[in-house]
Amino acid sequence: MNDEIIAEVRAIKDAIGAKFNYDLRALFEEIKRGEAELQAKGIHLVPPPTDPASLSNSALQRGKARRRAQ
Asked: Is residue 16 scored above 80 in pLDDT?
């Protein structure tokens, strides 16, 4: 993998963590606030599946099968 990409992702993660003082509850509340703003603007948010394991031929399942085969 490209170390520059990993470094950039980690820098972004650390910046987000610092913004919320590494408080996951505060981060979650900000995410929910953002979702409420989007919904107020009329943007439809698609909820995640309740049981991803039951999805047929999902990317998650293909990834798991590929790892097992290696």
From this structure: yes
